[in-house]
Amino acid sequence: MSNPVFSNSDIFGDPRERAKARKGAGTATAPSPYGQQAAYGNAPVDAASLNQLYEAPAATTVQTGRMTYDDVIMKTGGLLALLVVVGAATWMIAPGLFFVGAIVGLVLGLVNAFKKNPSPALIVAYTVAEGVFLGGISAIYESRYDGVVGQAVLATLAVFGAALFLFRSGKVRVTPKFTRFLIVAMVGYLAYSLINVVLMLVGVGGGEFGPLRSGALGIGVGLLAVGLASMSLIMDFDSIKRGVEQGVPAKFAWSAAFGLIVTLVWLYLELLRLLSILRGD
C-alpha cells in the first residue's frame, strides 16, 4: 500500500495478502475477529427464544461498535474544518511559523502512521501542525502568485471528487498490478525529489523550485505527482471500504480520517506547486 497509515495496519490491509504471508510463514490462517458472530456452543434454545431473535431488528453498526462510512466522513470533515481554521489564523497572524508546523507535522505524522491503535489527541495535534504549515506556506505562495491558493483548493476538491467517482463507479479498481505500479512510481518520485533538494542546497541549477522542478520538466513532474496522489486517494478509499466490510472497531475511523488528511495535504501541495510553476512561466 502507498499510504503508510493503511499499509502498516493489520486492520485495513488486504486479507488476501495477510493470508499469503501466513501461508508463506507456515502458520495456520486464523479467521478475522471482526465481522463475525460469536459462537454460543450447543446450548438448547426454545422456540419462543428463536422466534424473538428472528423478529428482532438487525443490530446496527453503531450498536455493534463497528466503523461506518458516516464515522469516517464525520471525523474527516471535522479534521478538515480544524485544518482550515488553524491555517487561516496562521495566514493572518504568523505565516512565518510554517517551518515549525512542517517539522512538528512530520514528526506527528510518522508517529500516527506507525501506531497500531489510533490516538485521537495525536491525530488532532497533527492536524493543527499541518494547519500551521499550510497556512504559512499558502500565504507565501499567494503573495507571489495572486489567486493561486484559491485555484489550488478548487483543484484539490475537483481531483478528490473525480477520484471518488472513479472508485465508486468501478471504473478504476485497486488490483495487485495497480498497487505495485503506485509503490514503484512513488519510490521513484521520492528519490527524484530528494535529488532536486540536494541540487538546490549545493547551488546547482536555478529556478524557485529547483533545477528538476522548473520549466517544462517541472510541469511534467508536477502532473505526475498529482496523478500519484490521485491514485493514492483511490487506494485509501479501497482500504476504508475493506475496513467497513470487515467490521473493524469504530475507533479506527480516526485512522481512516487521518490517512485521508495526509493524502489530501500532499495533493494540495502538489497542485499549489504545479499551478505556481504554470503562473511563473
List its salient traits:
transmembrane; membrane; BaxI_1-like
Give the radius of gyration. Answer: 22 Å
Number of strands: 0
Unreliable residue stretches:
27-43
Based on secondary structure, the structural category is mainly alpha
**Mass-distribution shape:** globular
Explain the overall architecture.
The protein is built from 10 helices and no strands. It is mainly alpha-helical and about 280 residues long. It is about 70% helix and about 0% strand. The model is unreliable at about 25-45 (pLDDT under 50). It has helices at about 5, 15-25, 45-55, 70-95, 100-115, 120-145, 150-170, 175-200, 215-245, 255-280. Helix 4 crosses helix 6 (about 120-145), helix 6 packs parallel to helix 10 (about 255-280) and helix 7 (about 150-170) crosses helix 10.
List the helices and strands and how they pair.
Blueprint: H1 4-7, H2 15-24, H3 47-55, H4 69-93, H5 98-113, H6 120-144, H7 148-169, H8 176-201, H9 215-245, H10 253-280
Write a brief structural summary:
70% of the residues lie in helices and 0% in strands.
